[in-house]
């Protein structure tokens, strides 16, 4: 385990997985803490295992107010600063960095991209479009959105429209819902395949 420090001084619980000499690091952001989201949620663990097995380094962290992280939930404002701290830490250790998130975490990663105007490779796993920044604020760059065809938490039509507006490719995993139960390996393969080409 390690820690990160956001710009406002909030100290965040974090962990690295994977090879120290990886060519790319993935900053992986967890789902909404109000619904039990943490950096060790099952899909977070499964995708991390899949990525590290394919040679990626993965940096996960608990958003403010979650686990051992300081501060409190900030309705998306402070959480964008948390992503910024994680990206800075990843860029200090690895030559190439991408951002990935599941649900709320994907929206926060996009929020950081919009605020920073940084066009890093991005993968969003079932991001809720209503929490994402306006499409015209998202910088261009390689983007993938992974969603299940049985998604029950977010509006699939709205997500597909948002993906088109930001120039993201959408990959649909048949038989999966928002939690991708028993399909963590397939999600990891989609993420790794996309990032390996970037």
Can you offer a commentary on this structure?
The chain has helices spanning 42-53, 77-93, 104-116, 156-166, 184-196, and strands spanning 2-5, 11-17, 24-29, 57-61, 96-102, 122-125, 143-148, 169-173. It is α/β, with parallel strands linked by helices and 198 residues long. It has one domain: Alpha/Beta hydrolase fold, catalytic domain (Rossmann fold), CATH 3.40.50. It has an eight-stranded mixed sheet, with helices on both faces.
CATH class: Alpha Beta
Number of domains: 1
Q: What's the main sheet like?
A: 8 strands, mixed
Label the CATH architecture: 3-Layer(aba) Sandwich
> Kindly, what is the distance between the CA atoms of the first and last residues, rounded to a whole number of angstroms?
28 Å
Q: Classify the fold: give the CATH topology.
A: Rossmann fold
Relevant CATH superfamily: Alpha/Beta hydrolase fold, catalytic domain
Series of H and E elements: EEEHEHEHEEHEH
Instruction: Output mean pLDDT.
Output: 97
Number of helices: 5
Tell me the strand order in the biggest sheet: 1-2-4-3-5-6-7-8
Number of strands: 8
- Residues in helices, as a percent range: 25-40%
Supply the helix-strand structural class. alpha/beta
Q: Give the strand content.
A: 15-25%
| Rg computed from alpha carbons, rounded to a whole number of angstroms | 15 Å
Poorly predicted residue ranges: none
Quick summary:
This protein is an alpha/beta fold and 198 residues long.
